[in-house]
Design brief:
heterodimer, A: 333 residues, alpha/beta, Rossmann fold, Alpha-Beta Plaits, four-stranded antiparallel β-sheet, 11 helices, 29% strand, B: 475 residues, mainly alpha, 20 helices, elongated
Chain lengths: 333, 475
């Protein structure tokens, strides 16, 4: 497949030797294929925004280079930028202008004009389902509508690569669903390469063909969501809410040794420290390689031991767990 | 270049659809100018608040070698328009000398005697004020010139008089020396000491005295030039003339007319402007400039706002060069300030016409130069905005510092109704622009220095600002 976005030893250092330097990005190497949805995950301050800013030509790298469609963002910035659409996290629109006027203005910044511009604006307004409100000022729109115009402004010139920075922040679930579907449409129908940043694991897992996890300015994991989960060897977690306040150590050991795939069993009593500190029920927590398969065996053992199960939850490993495994911190820390 | 234009158009549109900014740009300066115009605009009418300005006239002058006491003439005019009484009989016959009955106004004209209520300030007047404990006894030898001058100044400071006109002892001799080639040239200066709290009437007194002395001086210079020419061509005739009474022969050359302060006098190319118009030009232009500073800065500093809202990043992420974005912004600000100034000029013209009771274009008839001044103002204002954008660190800091700076420039430049000494005022671009508008309104077309200062100031500040801004503007 064609490489659409590539970074080579891309690095950025802020400050200077006298006042102290901060290495925001420490030499990142990435290759993103054409038609791929690539998510960059990482906590605040990890270097996501700086990396993306360098790729989109907003910030000059201290070292290395990035190419878009083969054009160097350092040496051929205008050519590279023509291929890139930007959908920032902020609503980067002029609130006193209408949706149509905003789109026309930003379209002109990409060299569009005349009938071509008018047709593209019509098409994009239709795509984001805002044709009927096109002449209203953006400041009168709901959050979800603004987000959609924000996306439309980034897609108007039909870019080959679109960068979306947390496009679902602060909107209702219905609008969020619509945006996620839009992202998939861009890849499936238009063959666009999407560079997506988010801190929402479920979004990244649902959308991404591949994920890069960035921390302290370095890519610490790279691959498909499934590969990453597999790589770190995370297991399912079965959480049983039980009426007992005590489960004996012998019973826990019995579950661990007699059910296939179980690697660990523990009990979290009610009102104590840990996960169960606000609960009046106790929590029986079992780690298993294939949790759903082990579930009926554990329930039978519990019944035999007279343990009354109130509810069961199967927690499958996710990218959050991957990040926790890799860094010892939660992604939202 | 298309992108520069699109950015500029959007910039102008944003400014003129922002109601808050429109208030600052147009409504506020217009309202303030109209209020000031209404307060002082009836100057030429009997109900004018500026009439009978109390002036102390201290005359130390004695007659010159030609026998004419110019100081007495000046003092006489200021103390009730008594030119007839102060003139030698030969002068009273001059065609421009005031008639004995002169002293009242006709129509919209305002005579000197109506405008200035002069009082001869002599030793007796000083003593009276000291005895009344209105003023303290001056720290000078009693009866001396310094004593009298100090007493007059103290009376002005106390508000008894709006101004004191102090005519030096060598005034007549100085004027006579201009007309008589046999005399060595000498200098003397009339002092007009004004009350700081009454800048406008004190300024009027100063203008009146300047006007009278200018005519006296020009008359004497004309005579001197005639004699010099005569000395070259017909020395015998000159010798014969000089043996006679020179003053008596040429006296009409420097007899002031009785219309020196007729406020509806119109110099060549000047606007058909009455007092209301003049005041609107002075205050209106200063107010327009003061608020244009805010509009200009808001335009340039909106770069910070755009960075915060990410619209700037969206532009920078497009294939639009950085220079095009900055140029578009600058052109937008220039056009905005030009529109703002033009709108205010038109609005103030309408207000001035209403106050004058007839259509009056108060800004002069030299429209090309008026346009040039407007362009220079827009450049200066934009330059200042760019400078602030380069020096300051963010929109919040820029708003605070920008407001304080604008207030300072307004105070220094005379936007608030009082004038600081010119040496200080020259530091404000408002002064240079206001002066240019005043010159054009009065028909004095040479505004090249003003335009030069404004453009140079704007260009230098823009260059510095752009350099600093580009260096630090990492998005």
């Amino acid at each position: 497949m064609d490489i659409m976005v590539e970074t080579k030893d891309l690095a950025k250092t802020f400050g200077n030797a006298k006042r102290g330097e901060v290495q925001a990005v420490k030499g990142i190497n990435l290759q993103i294929q054409k038609g791929e949805i690539f998510s960059l995950l990482g906590p605040n301050g990890a270097g996501k925004t700086t990396t993306i800013s360098m790729i989109s030509g907003l910030t000059a790298p201290t070292r290395g280079d990035a190419t878009i469609g083969g054009y160097s963002i350092r040496r051929q910035p205008l050519e590279a930028k023509r291929l890139l659409g930007v959908v920032p996290q902020e609503i980067a629109l002029y609130p006193s202008l209408s949706a149509r006027e905003n789109l026309e203005f930003f379209g002109r910044m990409y060299g569009l004009g005349g009938k071509d511009l008018a047709q593209r604006v019509d098409g994009m307004l239709d795509f984001v389902e805002l044709t009927d409100r096109q002449h209203d000022r953006v400041e009168t729109y709901s959050g979800g509508m603004k987000r959609r115009v924000n996306i439309a402004a980034g897609l108007l010139h039909d870019p080959q690569v679109v960068y979306m920075d947390e496009p679902t922040v602060g909107i209702d679930p219905q609008s969020r669903r619509r945006i996620l579907d839009t992202v998939k449409l861009l890849r499936d129908q238009r063959g666009m390469t999407v560079l997506y940043t988010t801190h929402l694991m479920e979004e990244a897992q649902e959308l991404s063909d591949r994920v890069g996890i960035i921390d302290h300015g370095e890519i610490i994991a790279l691959g498909t969501p499934g590969d990453l989960i597999q790589q770190v060897g995370e297991q399912d977690k079965l959480v049983f809410k039980v009426s007992q306040s005590v489960v004996s150590a012998e019973m826990l050991e019995h579950i661990r040794s007699s059910v296939e795939g179980v690697t660990r069993a523990s009990f979290d009593p009610p009102g104590e420290v840990g996960e169960n500190k606000t609960n009046i029920s106790g929590l029986l927590i079992v780690n298993a390689a294939r949790g759903r398969k082990a579930l009926p065996f554990i329930i039978r053992l519990a019944e035999e031991a007279g343990i009354e199960i109130e509810s069961v939850e199967v927690r499958e490993p996710d990218l959050e767990a991957v990040f926790l495994h890799l860094t010892g911190r939660e992604l939202r820390d | 270049m298309d992108k520069v234009w699109f950015i500029a158009v959007r910039e102008v549109r944003s400014r003129f659809t922002d109601r808050r900014l429109l208030m600052i740009m147009l409504a506020a300066p217009l309202a303030i100018s109209v209020i000031i115009g209404l307060a002082f605009g009836n100057l030429g009418r009997s109900s004018s608040p500026i009439r009978d300005i109390p002036v102390a006239v201290v005359n130390h002058d004695q007659a010159g070698t030609n026998g004419i006491a110019f100081g007495v003439m000046l003092a006489g005019m200021l103390t009730g328009g008594q030119l007839q009484e102060s003139l030698p009989s030969s002068m009273a016959a001059c065609p421009q000398a005031p008639a004995a009955s002169s002293g009242g106004s006709t129509g919209n004209e305002l005579t000197l005697s109506e405008l200035i209520h002069g009082t001869t300030f002599d030793a007796a007047a000083a003593q009276q004020l000291i005895e009344d404990k209105t003023i303290l006894s001056p720290n000078a030898e009693a009866g001396s010139s310094d004593y009298l001058d100090a007493a007059a100044r103290a009376a002005v400071d106390k508000g008894i008089y709006t101004a004191a006109v102090i005519i030096p002892s060598g005034f007549s001799a100085s004027l006579s020396s201009l007309a008589d080639p046999r005399q060595p040239p000498s200098e003397s200066t009339i002092t007009v000491y004004g009350n700081a709290g009454q800048a406008l009437p004190a300024g009027i007194v100063r203008s009146v005295v300047d006007s009278i002395t200018a005519q006296l001086v020009s008359g004497n210079i004309a005579i001197g030039a005639t004699f010099t020419k005569l000395a070259e061509s017909q020395p015998e005739l000159l010798a014969s003339a000089l043996d006679q009474d020179v003053g008596a022969k040429f006296v009409c050359a420097f007899v002031p007319g009785d219309d020196l302060v007729r406020l509806d006098d119109q110099p060549v190319q000047a606007a058909d402007t009455g007092t209301a118009g003049s005041i609107l030009v002075t205050f209106g232009s200063a107010q327009a400039l003061f608020f244009a500073l805010f509009a200009g800065q808001t335009g340039i500093l909106s770069m910070y706002e755009e960075r915060k809202n990410w619209t700037l990043q969206r532009m920078l992420a497009s294939p639009t060069p950085r220079w095009a974005i900055l140029s578009g912004k600058l052109v937008g600000v220039l056009v905005t300030v030009l529109f703002q100034m033009l709108a205010l000029i038109l609005a103030l013209t309408i207000v001035g016409s209403l106050m004058e009771g007839r259509p009056t274009f108060i800004w002069g008839t030299d429209l090309p130069r008026l346009g040039l001044v407007l362009l220079a103002v827009a450049i200066a204002v934009s330059g200042l905005g760019m400078f602030l954008a380069g020096v300051l660190k963010g929109i919040e800091q820029a708003n605070i510092v920008g407001s304080v700076l604008n207030m300072g420039l307004g105070v220094i430049g005379g936007a608030f109704g009082f004038q600081l000494p010119r040496l200080i005022a020259e530091f404000s671009l408002i002064f240079w622009a206001r002066q240019a508008f005043e010159k054009l309104s009065a028909g004095h077309g040479d505004v090249s220095l003003n335009v030069l200062v404004l453009v140079a100031e704007g260009a230098v500040m823009f260059a510095i600002g752009l350099f600093l801004f580009n260096r630090k503007f990492e998005v």
